[in-house]
Structure formats: C-alpha cells, structure tokens
Batch of 2 targets.
Target 1
Amino acid sequence: MSISKRNSNLFAAENWEVAYSAYTNVSFKAYDFSTMRSAMLNYIRENYPENFNDYIESSEFIAIIELLSYLSQSLAFRVDLNTRENFLSTAESRDSILRLANMLGYTPKRNIPASGLLKVTSISTSEPVFDTSGVSLQNQEIQWNDEEDPESFDKFVAILNSAMSSNNPFTKPIIQKNVGTIPTEVYAINNQRGQNVAFSFEGSINGEKYPFEIVSADINQNNVFKEAEPNVYQPIRFLYRNDKKGLDSQNTGFFFMFKQGELKFNDYIFERALPNRFITVEDTNINETDIFLQQLDENAIVQATWKQVPNLTGQTLAYNSLSLDSRNVFSVENTINDGVRIKFADGNLANIPTGIFRLYYRQSAGTSLTIRPENFNALTINVPYFNARNELHNLTVNLELQTSVFNSAPAESLQSIKQNAPQTYYSQDRMVSAQDYNVYPLSQSVNILKLKATNRTHAGHSRYIDIEDPTGRFSKVTSYADDGALYKDDEPYQQNIIFGLNKTETQILTDDIARMTKHYSLQNFVYDDFRKAHEKSNPGAFNLLEKDILWRTQPSAPRNNTGYFTTLNAGTREILNNSTNDNRIIQEGSYLRFRNPNDPTEKMLASINSITNSAVPYNTLATTTGVVSLSKDIPNGWLAYEILPSLNAELLEQDIGVAFKNKITAKEDFGIGYDFNPINVSDSHWYIIDNGSLLKDSKFESSRESGASWIIRAEYNETESSGTTSKYTFVGRGSRYIFESLSDVKFYFSNDEKTYDSSTGRIQKDTIELTTENYSPEIRETYIWDDTDEDGISDAWKLADSDATYVPAGASQNIILRGRNSKAKDMELRFISNFGILQNGASSISGSANYAQGDFISPVEVAIKVDSVSADTGKAVVAKGDPV
Amino acid sequence: MATFIGFSTDGKVKPPFNLVDLDLVKQDILNQLKTSKGERVMRPNYGSIIKESLMQPLDALTKQDIEDDCLRIVNGDPRVSLINLSVEELEHTLRVEMYLEYKEDLSRDALIAEFDFDFDGENV
C-alpha cells in the first residue's frame, strides 16, 4: 500500500476522494422516517447482500435502522425548524420574528390605545362660589349651555376658575394652540397633589368591560393632543376648545382627555453604573404610546425625564443623543405578547442610569375598539382641589363622549412585521427612492393597510420644474388654449307630473315644484335674464345701500357666519326683520354682496343659508348663536350693499298653496311667478298667473301684472288625463352656459374614472380659467362682390376661396353659409365690395347718406340689401339693422 | 449455504452477531414476543401483549388472548409455520412454548420463552 493511499485511509474525513465517493451513496432527499429507512435499507441491499437479508420488521437490525431513521427525522426536523426560524420570511415563532426584526433595527408596533376627548356637560362644587348676582353655586349642578339659564356659561366658568390655579384662570391658559383648526387652550385644576395621575372609570363595549382613564391633557409640538407625562405632583390638565359655532357645538366647551387602559409603574434602583443595562417588564399588552421613564430623588420627586429613542437604523442608543439633545436616552424592545424590555446605553454617547427610576406604562386592550357615546354612561369624576384660600373642596365633573372613537389598533401582526422590517431596513429611516415612498410609511403606523406611491418623474427631469403628470391622475394638468368659447343657450326645463296618484297637490308643490325651482337652468335664468329684466324696468332694484344693512356676528367674533342684520329706519338703527314690508327682499338662498364700510375695495359675496325667527335674534348676548346663517364668515360690521335674489322655495306653500290646488282641481293652465321684493303688504313672493292672462310664448317681463312674468308655467294635458288624474307639463324658463373649445382641448366626461382628493376624500373637479377675453369669432367666410357674367357690372357674391357665387334677391343675400355646425356668434362674415356702408346715424339708403367705401364685416343676423338702383350700376349699399 | 442471514446481539457481548435460517427466524419471533406494543418507535402495533398480560390472572380468556397473539406473530413470519403452541404459568413465570417448522428445509425446532413476573428479564 502506498504511503498516499494509507494516508488517505487514515485521514478519510479529510480526503476529498473518499468524501466524494461516500457522498455519492448518500440520499440527500431523505429527511423523514420512511425515506431515511428506505435509503438505508437500499444501501444495505446494494452493498451487503451476502451479509444480510433478514428484511422483516422483527429483525433486530431493522429495528436499529428504524431507530436511526427516527432520530434522523427528529434531527432533520429540528435543523429545518431552526433554520426556518432564522430567516424572517420563514420564521413562525413571534419570539424569533421579534429578534430578527430587532436585528434589522425595526421595532414592531405594539397596540395603540383608544383615546379621545370627553366634553364636560355639567359641574358642581362643594365650595361656596357665587355668581355675578351673588347667588351661591355651592352644590348646584350647572349644565353646559343650559338654554333655560342664560348665565350658565358664566356660572360654569366661575366654578372652574375657583378650582383652577389662580395663575391660570379662564382666558389665561397654560398653552394655547390650534388643534385641527380649532383654537384650543390648556388649563390645570389645582387638584390635591400626590394622589392621582389619572382618574379611572369603566366602559362597556359590546358587552365587555374595559378600563379607561382620564389623563392630564397636553398638546405636542405638532399641534396634536397628547397625554402629559404622569406626575403625581403636577396638576391635572384639561382643555377648552371653541370652534366658534356656538356653545352647542360638539367642539366647543371644556374637555378632559381619556385613554383606554390602566397606567402602572415599576420603580427600579440602579446602584452601580452597569453598561448596556436592560430591564424587562413582565406585564403584557403594554401599548405603543404610553411609556414614560423618570429619574426620581429619594422623595419620589421627578428629577429628569429620560427620552425614548426610536431604535431604528441610524437612530440607536449610541447614535442619536445629539439629535435628541440629551444623553438620558433609552430604547424599548418588544417581547412576546406586547411586553417590553427597556435598554440603556453603554455610557459612551449616552448616560448609564444610576439612582432611582420609575417606569410608567399603560396596559391597553390590544384590540381594535369602536367606542360610541352610549358606551360611557353617566360618567362622573370627583376631583379634590384647593381653592384660592387653600381650602380643600370637591369638584364633581360630569362628562360625555360627543363622537365615536375608533383610533385603537391591535399590535402589529407577524405578517406585517415580516413585511415591514426588511423594507424599513432598506429605506434606512429616510424617504429618498421611489421604493422608500412605497414602504417607509408602512413602518410608521399599523393603521396603513395599503400604500401606493407612484413615480411621476424620471431621470433628466429637473427638480426645479414643477412635474406634471400628463394623465391628470396624480397632478393637475393645465392645458392652454386660445380657442375657447362661452355662450348661453335658452334651455327650458320640462317635467311631467300626474296629479291624483299617491301625492297630494301640496306635496307636489313642496317637493316637485320646489325641486324645479332649484334646477340649474332655472337658477341660471334667475341670476341673469330675470335679474336683467328687473334691472331694466327698475334700475337699482337690487341695491341695498338705502337700507344701510350691517352684518352683526353672533356669537360675537371678529368674523362669523352666524349673526343678524341691522338696518337704518328713519335715521334709527334697528334690527332687521325680514317679515316687514321693507325688508322682504332678504330671503333664504339669496346672495349678498358685502363690503368693508371703511374700505369699499374690500368685498365679499355670501349666500344666506337660513333665516329663523324672521331674522330677529332671540337675544343679543355675545354667546348666543345668530338667527341668520351665511355660507361663509363675514366680518362684523360689514355693509350689505347689493342682493342677488334667488327663488325661496320654502315660501311656495304659504304663498300659493291654495291657489295652486284650485288650479289643479279646475284642470286649468296657469303660470307661477316670483316677486323677489313685493311692494304691497298683501302681495306674496310667489303668485299664480291665470290662464286668461298667461302669455306662454312671450319673453320674460319683470312686472308681476304681466302675463309673461311666469318662471314656471303649467299646461294641462287633457288627452292623457282621466276623471281622477290630471297630467300636467311644467315648463320652467331656463338657460345654460356652454364652454367649448374648437380644437385645442377635448373635453370628455367619464363617470368611471374619478379622481379623489386624498386630503378631503372628495371628487376633484376641473376648472376653466379665462386669462383674457376675446370676442372675435373663430370662423370667417369672405365674400367678394364679383362680376360673374363679365358685363362690367358686379352682380353676385363670390366665396373668396372657391368659385361658389350667390346672387342676392331683395333683402336676402341667398348665401348658404358653410359653417353650419357653428353658432352664429362664432362666425364672421366678411364682405368685400366696392359699395358703401351706411355709417352710424344714417338710417336709410339715399344719395346723401353717409357711405363708407370698402370692406364690411357683418354679424350673420344682419340683413344686407343691395338696392335695385345700385345693382344696375354695380354698386350696392348695406344697412345694419332692419333691411331697407 | 444459508438462505437467510441476519443479525442479533441478544445474549451476546462480542461478535459474531450473525444468525442464519431457523435460528434467525426464532430470534426474530422472540424479538417481537419480548417487545410490548407501542414500545418500538414509529410502529405502535409492533410487539406482543404478553408483558401487559403478566399481571392478569391467567384464566382461559387471557390465555386465549396470548395464544392468539403468538399465533399472529408467527403467522406474520412467512418463513415458518406453527406446529404446536402452549402457554403455561409457572412460579413467577409465564412460559410460552412454540414448536416451529422451517419452510425452507422443513426442519423443526422448539422456541421457548419465559417471562418473569418481576420484569427483571426473560429466560429463554
């Protein structure tokens, strides 16, 4: 035997030839008991047939092989299991997934607690507090916005002021910020210290009881509500919000903040500086938001608050002490079932904790809860407080939830962690690439279920250019064109109504006819033709300057959309009452033009949404909601100088209810007119025009005595009526405005492809802006006065770019226009001739008339006459207006 | 030349561990008799009920069960056929005697297995 071969035998494991030879006989597909057993038996059959053939299950050797197969299967399973648990995509154990996510610097989200605001509906105090009248409020329950007590607000504030710190009474808040556009102030109760950091109560949701706590409220730097850091030596804070919609608004009043869960704390004493210390909290279901770590002195007074670092890549204990501007930092790792492990730093870039520490944490439900107002029944808390004389009293506060709360969420699911952890690691805590935009937000909230960010730019696009998506789906598209045209068409609106079926005449009047008055075509008519007709017959009909109407905001505010009007009556300023004859022009639905009395260039337009109590306020208190509601906030004291009346359908029944029914019963045709400002006391706004005086086909006339003043007319259809039913056709005057583009822009409407505004959730609409106005027509046809029979005398109009000729006949030019699909206003007819044009002032053709020689551009509808004398001489005259 | 070649360490402390033909078959049957049901990995039905029956009164019913079980085990081995079977109770011992015929050469031999009640081991 050669030395090399002997060495190979001795060091078989190291000899690749031996190993290679051995592996050729190994079945690497065998992992389970049966395949292992088969593989080994096959091996024996092939290699040792002369030494063993006792292949029966009772054979000892077979038993040994099966035992080996069993062990191999067990080992293979464990190796496989351990391997799978080491990869995020295949791991199944929550512990493994949390560890793997932690390795990637990703902290899975624990559960989010439900939180919200509870409105204070009533309060009472054991302290003898007196109102402005000197009446004691002791042990009296004062309701918020008590309609029977106009001084309830003052009493409310008096009690609260007594319970609050004298440094921060009402109107002198500790913090004042806008939260979601609503001005919000933070106040504190001078409550008994050292006792409560929160007030517990129970809520029953879907038959299950959950613990809740009223916590001290605060506003963070992003103007969002947050829980103030728990501290038994700090006063409990609450909020005052005022959305300026009156005291009965859901968002106006005093509020306490609540959170679902139970606040707990653990105290720790760290006697020596141990680098990389960690502490594990044994409790489960600890929520994501409420972990506070405080360093205390020996009297349990808070000395410092340690800050939590996100523990993301690039934001670790060792790295972010600079960004947080503090070396007192800690990170939180999750353990299974929403437990936490608090980790501290090694002392190099952040401090090692030593001394007494208190960790506050809140255990929450860990599920998604929908909390409705009825889930908190008869919620009352008692807050012991010290008044200004340092006497201990008790404040009783009754609270109500105003709107449903559904902001809680369970802990991040394993599937979500497996998806988000590698993506977050990829994005490195920043959003740069397109993929970052698609994945990073998912790591920030468990409430994002689906996310899609679309790349709208590409290499070569300058960052300084406003990128536009040409499809219009993701960005605004501005198309410039110079061929836009706006015109108005008459568009009567027609509706057939059968009386005698399931609706009464009154119901039809207040439903169907009222709906007709709101149809856009009739509205267009009212704001244009109707208005112009009244202006023409009665110049200044819509001018309100004589009445000197001023807007008064109520509740009192520099500007508001509720309030009332005052007017000047015989030199005396009084409250406007729109039921009096002088002021009936002020009606719901009408638009008012306002201007600043001190600066007439400042103007605003608003519509009247509603008027109650004939626009006369119930009282003029600063806190009462006004009787007039406008569509937008108008500054107090502004002058209403013009009105744009609209049809007030609310008055239909009271004005013409009886007459309407009578006409239907009589099966007569009739008209319905509207007088926006009846002069006579006995006249109503709406009126009926009898069939005898109704002028069905006439243009609108403004005078209510005219039969053409109808805006809706009713025609009885006898043939389709029966003894019990009457079919009427109601025709409303109307017009529509059409904007078109001849070729530059194609407008199309697709109901299937709506684009939603992500911030408002509403459908986005296109707008057309006119940068300049251009009254020039788009289509031109030029006709030349031509000598077609070559007799030296011109005799026909010849189209400039073809050989078509048209011989005039009397007043008619006999010209067949080519632009048939166009509106007349879009066309320009140009006549080139050697005859004259009557200038302004000359009304007829005569030898002495003022002629102008040359080209003539005519609107299509103007008739042009070539008189016989001129035709003989080859000359003609053109007259604008009536043909001569 | 032997038809069946097998392996057994039963009662041996050093090689050779080879067994052939009827001796091998007897050892295989004995292996199963000495194994309780559920004792062997992955084969819950392998084994005999004899050990579980030791503490039962050896009445006719139990005896019949043991005989049926022995018959099942022998019939499970196609290399032999059972000529005679007896189950007897001795002092602290259950004795199973089988008289087997080896089908290859029609030779016959007895298989005797004794099971102590105190579970210290079996005497064959």
Target 2
Amino acid sequence: MKRGRYVISALLAVLWMVPLRAQEPGRVRGRVVDDASKQPLAAATVTIGSRSAQTGTDGHFAITVPAGTDSMRVRMLGYAPVVQAVTVEAGQTLVVPDIGMTQQAVGLSEIVVVGYGQQRAGDITGAVKQLSVEDFNPGQIVNPAGLLQDRIAGVEVKENSNAPGSGFAIRIRGATSYTATNDPLYVIDGMPVSTGNLGAAGRDPLNFLNPNDIESMTVLKDASAAAIYGTNAANGVVLITTKSGAAGGRHGSQVEYSTTASMSSITKTPSVLSPTQFRAAVAYDDSLVRATNPTYTGRLGMLGTASTNWMDQITRTGYGTDQNLSLTNAGDGLFYRLSLGYLKSNGIIQGSSTERLSLGLNYDQRLLSDRLDVKLNAKGSRTNDVYQNGGTLGDAVGMAPTQPILDPTTATGYWNWQTGSATANNPLEDLNTTVDKGTTWRSVGNIQADYQLPWIQGLRANMNAGYDVTSVSRQTFNPNNTSQQLHAQHGFLGLNNTSQVNTVFEAYLNYAAPLNVVPGRIDVTGGYSYGQTHGVQPSPGYGYTFQQTNLTSNLFGINGIPTPNLGTVNNGEYIVDSKLISWFGRFNYNLNDRYLVAASVRRDGSSRFGPGNQWGTFPSVSLAWRLSQESFLRSVTQLSDLKLRAGWAKTGNQGFGDYLQYALINSSNGQASYQLGNTVYGTIRPSAVDPNIKWEETNSYNVGLDFGLLNQRVTGTIDWYTKKTTDLIFTVPVASETNFSNYVTTNIGSSRNRGLELALNAVILQGRGNSLGWTAGFTAAHNANTLLSIDPKKSVPLVPVGGVSGGVGTTIQVLEPGAEMYSFYVCRQFYQNGKPVSNKYYYVNGDSTFSGLPNAPDVCDSRGQRPYHSPEPTWNLGYTSNFTFRNFDASFTLRAYLGNYVYNNVASNNGTYQNVSNGGSPTNMSTDVLKTGFTVPRFLSDYYVQDASFLRMDNLTVGYTFHYRGQPMRVFATVTNAFTITGYSGVDPTAGIGGIDNNIYPRSRTVTGGLSVRF
Amino acid sequence: MNLRILKAPAAAAALLFLAVAACTDPTVKPKSTVTEANVFNDPTAYQQLLSRVYSGLAVSGQVGPAGNGDIQGIDEGFSQYLRLYWECEELPTDEAVIGWNDIGLPEMNTMTWTSSSRMVVAMYYRIGVQAVMANDFLRQTTTAALASRGNVSAALKTQIQQWRAEARFLRALSYWHAIDLFGSIPLVTENDPIGGAPPKQVTRDSMYHFVVSELNAIKDSLPTWGAANLGRATQAAAHMLLAELYLNAGVYTGTPNYSGALTEAAAVIATPGLTLDPNWRHLFQADNRTSPEIVFPIESDGVVTQTWGGVTFLAHASCGGSMSASTYGIDYCWGGTRLKLEAFKNYSAGDNRAAFFYASGQTDTVYTIGNFNSGIAAPKFVNVTSGGAAGSNPTFVDTWFPLFRLGEAYLIYAEANLRGGGGSAATALGYVNALRERAYGGVAGDITAGQLDLPFVLAERGRELLWEAHRRTDLVRYGLFTGGSYLWSWKGGQINGVATDAHLNLYPLPATELITNPNLTQNPGY
C-alpha cells in the first residue's frame, strides 16, 4: 500500500498545476470545400493544436483555441490532409479563406491507436488493423468482440455458445497454448483488463462494456506490434478506445439516442425420434435383449401414451431490447461524454437471459494552454444473467416423447420416471423448479494525464492510474423434491461469490523530435508499469464459496437456508494476489516516409514466475519500406501505395494460474477426512510443483505487403507469419515415487502456427451525389497449427483432451506432437454397404480391420486411434459489402469456414439402441440411430467427426437516413445469422470453441429493428 | 512564473522516480494456503499428515467426494486406490466382470491390458504416491526434524514414534501391492529427496525382503488391535501382511515360506478380542466398523470420508437391472459388476454366503459383458446396517472394506498347513469348518479331513472372500491365473475362455513410466 501513496502523490503533483494559467483564447472560423467541385464538405475534421472541430453540412467550422501560432490540420476520409499555419490573437476571431481539399488516398494518414501512443497508419511497420464505429457489425450486440466478427483477416471471432451473453472467444492467428490462455490482451483506454478467472459469472467477462460506447478497436495481430505488452502479448492485443466528447469534434452539446428491438427464433434443434419412431425403437431393442436373455421383460410397457415434443416445450421466441442515450459536449478545452445503456436479451431456451445496465463517462480537460491534457474514463455496469439449467437441453433430447409433461401425484407436479437411475428427466421440471442466476458488477476506469514538457519541444510525460473492479455473485438452487434430487443430492444450494480488484499505474515519457532536429522523424517512448491484482474466489476444487446438499428445506430458495441447518455444508474461500512490474521502451524512425524502423523492448517481472525466472525480456524489431515513394515506382500512377514490412518479436504468455511455483499444502475438506480410533481427522497433502515455472514464449516473424491502387480505391494487405511457442506449460508425468503426484506442471512443450492472411477492400462504385455507392471487403486467412512437442523426452506421447458426454473420462481429442492441437483422436470406421459397422475399425496403418485377428478385441484403442482433422478451419473467409443509394444504405457480411470439423456428440451419445435398455428408464435417441443401427455407443468412431465447413450470412442490414426537423435520424433493420449453408448434420457447425457438439445451445436467427436520432 | 511551471513537473518526476524505485519486486507469497514454510508451525500437522497416508487408500483427493485429486491422467473417481486395486484383483479372474466401456476398463475383464491401460497405469501411480506420502511423514518426523522446529512437546514426540511405525506399515502395504501386481519397481525411502532423480528399480526379491524386514522391525511398535485403535495399522495387521507375504513368497522370490505364513496367521488368530463375526453379512454392511473380525479396513463414510471409488463404487456398481437401489441403502444403481459363471457355480445349496445374490431377470452366464442382465448380480457390499437401517448418506456409503479379516487368517493357516508349513491339520480343519458352519448356519456344510485339500482351499477362498480383492493373487499362487489348465468365462476375451500367456501374471509397468524413468526394465512379455 506504500506504493499507492506514491501514486497518489504523483498524481496530485500533476493536478496541482491545474489552476496555473488561463490566457484568453481566440477563435478561428472558415469553410472546407472540395477542391475540384468547390462544393462544401461536411464532417471534415479541423484540428488546431489539440483542439478539433468538425464541419457542418455547409462546410463551415468554428474552433476556439489558445492564442498564438499553431498549425491547422484538416482531415477527411478520401482526401489528402491539408496543413497550414494560423496565428490567433487573444480574444480575436480569425476568418481563414476557404480550404480546398483534394481527393486522395484513403487511410494512410489516419491515426491508429497503438500501445502507449498513436501512430499514422502509413507509418506502421507491423500487422495492425483498426476498426472504427462505421466498420463495426450492426445489430443488437451484447459483447464488444461481436463488433469485429468477419472483419479482420486472421482474427477469428468464435461463438462460445449461442446463449445470450455467452460471448465470443477471439483467436488471433491461432491458439498456441493448452494450459495458459489463448485470449488476447484487452486494453480499454490504456487500462489493461482481465478476461479470465472470473468464473462465477460463466459468461463473457467483456460483457460489461457497452459496445455502443466504443469508438474504435485496434487489433495488434503481429507480435512486433504487440511486444510492447511483453508477457501478456503472445496472443495479440486488442486496444479499445471508447467514445469521447473530443472525438466528435463538433462544438457544443449533442444528445444521441438509439433504440433497438430484436426477436430471435430458433433455426435448428437436434433431430430426435418421434413418438412413433421411439415406440418402434423400444420394441426393436426389447427384441434384441431378449435374444440373449429370454426372461427380459422389455421396456415397451414403460412407455406412456402421450406425444410430447420436449424441444418445443423448452424453447421460445427470444425478445430483446437495447436502449442507449448519450450526451457529448465539446467546449473550450473541456470535452465529455456521458452515456447510459440498457440491454435485455432473452434467449431462445426458456429461462436464459442477460440484462445489462451500463454507465459511461469520458471526461477530457485541457489545461495550461493545452499543454496538459487530463482524461478521466470510467465505465461501469451491472449485468444480471439467468442461466438455463445445465441439463435442460440434454433432457429435452433424452426424455421419452411418449411421456406427459405433468403429473399431479408428484411433489413438483411434473411427470418423471420415479427412479434414481433415470437417464433423462423431465426438462420442464428442471427448468421451472431450479434457479441459476448471477449478477456481475464491474467497473473499469482510469485517469490519464499527458503533459507536454515545457523545456524540450516534443517531449511529453504521460501518467496513467487505473482500476478494474469486478464483483460476481451467482446463486444455484435445486430444490430437494425434484425427481432427480430425490435420488441424488437431495437438494443443492450453491453460492459463488468472486471478486477481483486490479490496479495499474503507468508512466512514460515520449519524445517526438521536431522535424528540424534530425533528418527524418524520430519517436521514442520509455516507461514503467506497475499492476497488481487481488482476487477472492472459491477455494481450488470447490466451485462454490458456499455449497450445501441434503437441503432440509426449500423455503428460501436461493436466499439461504432456515436454521437449524442440518444439511451438508462445504465452504471454501481463497485469496489470490498477483503482481506485474514492467519497464518498456519503443523507438520509431521514419526517413522520408520511405524507410521505417520500429523497435521495442519490455522487461516484465511477474509474481507468477518462479524465483529463478522472475524477470523476462521481450524485444521486437520491425522494418518497412514504402516502395511507392521510390522514384522508380513514382511513374506508376495507378499504384498509390506499396509498402513492404518485416518484423520479429519475442512475446510471452503468463495467462495461467497463480502460485504454481509454490509447494502448497492442500488441506482436506470435511468429506475427505479419516477416522483413527474414535476421532475423525482432517488431512494435509503437499503438492508436486516446479519451482521454476515461467512464461510461455513465442518467437514470431511476420512479412507483409500493403498496397493501394487507383488512388487507394483498391487497397489490400497480404501477411505471412510464422510463430513458434516454446516453454509451453504442460502437466507431464514425473517418475513415480519421486513426487507427491504422478504429474507436475512445468514449461516443456512447443508449438507452431504458420499462416497467410489476405485482405482486400475496394470502392467499386464511388456513390457521389445520388448515384449508387458500393464498397466491398474480403478477407481470407489460413493458419496451420502444429504441436511440435509436449515433452522432448516423450514421456507424454499425447494428452487426451475433449471430454464428451457418455462414459466417464471418454475423450475424443488429443494433443499429440506432429498433429494440430485439439485434433480429434478417433478410429477409422469400417463401412459395409455404406453403413458403419459397429466396432469395426482399421488399424493406424489402415490395411486391416481389428476383426478376425487372434485375440484382437473389437475395440477402438491406441492401435487404431490417430489424430484426425480438427475444429479449426484451414481457411477462414469473410466478405462484406456496403451499398448506399440516396438515403438508403444496405450491407451484409458473409463468413465461410473451410475444413473445420465438429464431433457430433449428440449423435454418438444418443444415437444407440442401448438408450432403451441401459439405465433406469428408456431414453430417446438421435435420429442418427436409424442410419447406423448401433446398439451400443461407439464414441471413438470417426463417423461422428463431421465436416462442418459452412457459409453463413452473419449480418444483413438495411438502413434509411433522413432529417426530421433538421436533426439526422436513422432507422435500420438487421438480420443476424440470416442463413447457413453446411453439410454438418448437427445443430450448428460452429459448435462452441472446442468443436464438440454436445447439446449445444441452439442457434437463433435474430431480426433487429432500430432507430437512432441525434439532436 | 516560468520557474513555477518548471518546478511542478520536476517535483512530479522526482515523485515518479521514487514510486518506481519502490516497486521493483514482483514476489507475491500465497496468503490463504499453507506452504512447506509454515505448515509445521501448527503441531497438529503431524497427525494430519499421518491421516493423509491412511486416507490415500480411501479417498481420491483433498476435496471429497472429488476435487483436487491426487493423481492425474484418469478420471478422479476412477483413480481411487481401492477401486483400482479391486479391479486389478477381481476383474481378470473367474469372479467378476464389469460392463462399462470406459477407456481402460473392458480389457481388465479379459486380460487384454497393455502398458497404457488406464487402470493399470493409475494403480502403479497410486502405489508410488502412497510410498512418497509415507516417506514424507517419516522425513518430517525424524528426531532432528522435530528438534529443529522446537514446538513439539515430549508427549507428541512419543506419540510420533508410534505414528512412524504406522506410516512404515502403510508403505509396506503398498509395496506389497507393487510386488504382487507389478513385480519389480523402484524402492524409495525417506532418504530419497522429493523431486530427485528417477529412482533405480530393485528386484522383486529385494523389495520383498525390504518389506518383510520393515514389518518385522515395526510390528512391536504398532498399537494393539482393538476399538481404541479403530482403523489404525495394528500389530495384528502387521502379522496379517506378513502372512500374505510369506504365503506368496514362492511367487515373489522363488522360495516358499509356508511356515512363516502359518506362524503369522496364528499370531493374527491369537490376537485378543479378534473373533469371527457371528454374522457373515455384517462384515459387508454399513455398520461393519463394529465387527470383531476386521483386522485392517479401508474406511468409507457417508459424511466424513466420501469418494466415488472404494466401497461406494462396489455398492453402486453391483446394483442394476431390476434391483431396487433403496434395498441396498443407495440412491442409484450404476449397473456395472456381476459374477462370472464360475464364481456363481462355486456355491452349493445351503451356503448362505450366496444368499444375497440377485438372479431375477439375470442370466447365470455372462453372454454380453456390456449388459447388466447378463450374469448374476452380487450386491455383497451394501449401505444398510445389520439392523436394516440405511446408511447415513445414500450416495456415499458407510461401509468399510475389510482388506484383512480373521476369516482369511483361518484359510491362510489351512493352506499353509496343507503346503507343509507345519501347524496342526486338525486345527486347520477346525478353522475351515468354523467358516463353513457360519456360512451354513450349522454343521451341514462341514467337511472331513479328507476333503480338505489345496483345490478345496482355493474354492473356499473364492466363496468366503468373494470380491474381497484376493482372487488374482490366489490364482497366481495356484498357477491357474494364466495358461490353459483352468479356463473361465471371458478369460483371454472368449466367452468360454482361452489359455493366456504366463507374462500376464504380472501387470506391465506403465509405458509413460518407462520414458520418465530410464532406469526401468519392462516386465517380460510386454
């Protein structure tokens, strides 16, 4: 806490200077026009010093600035920037002549947010892509990541699930790690935020941020761009800049209101047997069992006479709404934006919903003749999540369609198999009697002071102090009288309270040498960062801070238990603290806009690293050569830009658990004690550790080419990269009898990702005036992942992963050196007459089946299992088109995955006749059983690994912009998930991040209508 | 004015420098967990550490019933010591079959395991972890270690001497399992460091002699058998373990020691207070911790000792088909284990030890391993007390596993006598008939001296000790486990049984272990 005091003192020292000087400002007025047509240009940005304004529809602007001489810059998309000097007298208004702008290359002079600063797009030497409001996906989007989907080559935005609020996982250039995170680092307005370890909520930790508050998102794909973030940069970095009062540029206040309403309907549900088909299947299975056991009574008699479509019973039309109100103000040296948002989204499975109330403040004060810029950002939200009962979908698939919904004779009023060994329960009983809900409070904010030091021109000091506070509580309650609970835990109450507080202090100096000091432009940054995290969560292995089974009363539901409490209670709370201390520096050099050099280094000290490895250094170098500026290419007039880039960087990944380097002594809970004599004793167990655990390290190379044709009407980027990750953390076997476990977690493996990315953007029709405008963007990305080794000694030939439903410990994926990570690990099915033959497979060498060999049982085991495809697509394609015609606009995005595979666990687990006779009740089946005729599950057959390549229209939007009483308004309608074309037989070819389709939340088609108005 | 402007940033820069200079140590020590550094600041840690060596046989991790598991590479419930040991000792024999398809299980039914079979691998690691835990207790309680901490009272020091003997018993027990199942494995003691180099393999013979010498060294330091020492390793338990070792010495070392077996069995039998339980069923019921016959148990408790393995597994897995779970005091039938035909046919009419079998809807032959209705169900371990009351928790049973019991000591005496280990043939016959009189509820099942031969003892062991995790060891000792002289259903994977190769008398060392420990040589035939 001593450090905190220093931080506060330093900040106060800066703020103390605030009331120092206030010289009377002056004013500049003028008009911006198209140089050729002399027509006024609306929405051009005029900047003098650090003040900006935007031109109105008549091209006019007015801007208040401190007195003195400064340069005035005018920027507008599609035009070359204009710079001229202006001299403003105190208290006077200067009227400048009309400023003519020439149509020109798009984008090169755009300002791109990078780590610890900004850069001109044309100067960037790495693979960086920035998207702004106008590029974001429209529609009712809960999670910021959704804004990026399909838009950036090499940035895969995957649905975690289709439940409301379950969010997305962003994978930049493929996953590298098994133990540590594969999520990128998110930095919101300069404040790094955590995305992991907030498990209680179960939904995406970024949901707290209202997408409507976001101005731009920059993705640092390539390690040389990201390396300034050192040991958190291996998975790339996403920089989020929120909307501010200054960005709009317009002087004065503005209120913006937008509203959307949405309606989601289910697109596809798992295909199960109808009541008639089910009766036939039961009769068939009865006859099968009787063939070996003549006394078997069969189960046809257990079936009821009802006809219930369980899936219909649990689904609904999901309605949603999103309301946003913001107030922005741009005054003299004071800019702010206040926003209020409310979102409610109901899922298509009953009982699942998310609701967010968000507040945002962005406050920017310029002081000391604009030398000091103090920014305050604070975003906060409360999210209420309601989760559908975990078993609902599986029960809707498995519950016999011949049974009724209600039964007045049971405790809950729902019909159920009255046996503890029922394999499926009435899904409506689960849905309507259990409660599972959570509330997340989260706020991220920072105060940032940027000061232009007076004694050296071009030298700035920047200080940033920020916080990230999260509090999650989740309550789960299963009453003790449901059929399932009567035979199991006898009621369950779980309370999970997790909280986390992160604080960050950062300071850096930046020196951008004026043009006359050295040839070329130099930009140097050096700084320090200190971050600490304090978390309170359930003890390891507990899952809940408080949990109780054997409830003696359902009286209070999730609100507690009446005393005296005679149930079985288990409590566990655990404190996790961590620290990250860093030094960083960056050097940028630009010679004649032709030769660009960038180098950065970061030295990170982390509490997660063992004593010998506490500090890691992460350097990067990148170069760019703007060929189009060379004399030999200047004559090629069609070529407006050509830049060759190359970079190398070393980055780290410390996104794994805390305290791995300490030999912790684990105490037993009350259910793992042991009685000796007449006393029951608790126990302690030391754990097996590697005291030298450290970051996973990625060495990346990137080569890229940026090009622009026809005055940037067509632009494109091609990147090739290869990255090798070493010191991958795996839990590997240690020699037996040498440690407290048979496995220890250590830095041992390596993997490689190689890929190619292509992005093309074209303005096909310019759309000036009343004519049709058409722009199109296309991205393609290929990534090839290979796990190179788990343990060079090969103590672990492979790690089985990807647990599936059915059979304890059955896994169908593998981490095996030489294969892609998370490849499916299955046996090649033997077919006869086009049908898979139950339990007949090929050996790995492929030439003989197991059957017929002496003593070779018909099983799929290591003799037949081999890595076979993976959930990752080999090609990931995106296509976007935008049309404008008069006041109308229309856009759509398409996404295609090629070569991604999904394991259909619904078919493998539910597609067997054994469902009838196994367990205490007959269970309904996937219609897949009609194709295979399997009587027992064959989980490891490659029959269930299916090509899930698809083409999907993720988004289709039509909008109309008009003026009502002089104010701009827009109405629009969006269809998300308009259609999907795929050969995959299950519910959704994007079945979660792991590629296992196990009763996944069904996908919905959502129609959203919206209106936005500004005044 | 200008000076003032300069001063402020200078002050800020100075403060910044101070702030930075103060924050360059990233170390964070764990707060809400105990570490090696502070655990023995509380002297109760010694008792807790010893209890952990015991509970290593009973639970799967530090959070019951599952969580924070001890070993990895296998589902935690499957990883429990007794569950694995039972599967290794029963499934390949003529006694039991399990119907599940979980990876690693089907091959246990048919002797078709490999060095990667999950249950075999996990059993090996369980033994290793158990040895390391016992060693840790011994290392932390040396005279020097205790003296160095300065907070151990004289009374506790005395107490710890007995605990050290108990820890050594538990290490010897697991090493016996290693000798029996795997043959030759590395021997580590408290003198081998944690995290050290891969240990050297020792021969089956030297491990045998180590275990025997350990037991002889500690047996007098152990507490005596009785209610006050419930659950503990007692002197009787040490005698029993020695009897097991000597009985199988021929297999382990090539040199039989039947007289040793007989002597040790006699020592068990002579233990004051230890008597046959008048009610044989009581040995397998939820209140069996009060049985006067159990020499050494592996505990289980519905409240304080929960696991998905152990007797919870045995009670649930043996229930299925048309059986009602509540009859057995449990909430759910898992539908897994049944008798093989030979075990069912081993009983004669009138033998009450077969009275609990469940045949309704079951075939007596195991036609299909995967179908619970195929084979007679044998719900031997139940969660109902001898008084008919249900256990404290229908999911996790209260029933203890009788790892060693007096009944077996009788049979060891009889077998050792028949094999030339001395003693009295009349006493041997008396012991066998005592068991049979309990089984038949009278003298109807008594045998004559002429009927008491080695095959009879093996068959009687099958009847008396059915599903008590002795069968594989017995069949190996009789030379019947592999080869073709005794075929039982599904032996070698065929419904009528086929001859199997002699190398299967030992389980293989895990394939992974051969890589992590280059000192190891695989058992022949694998």
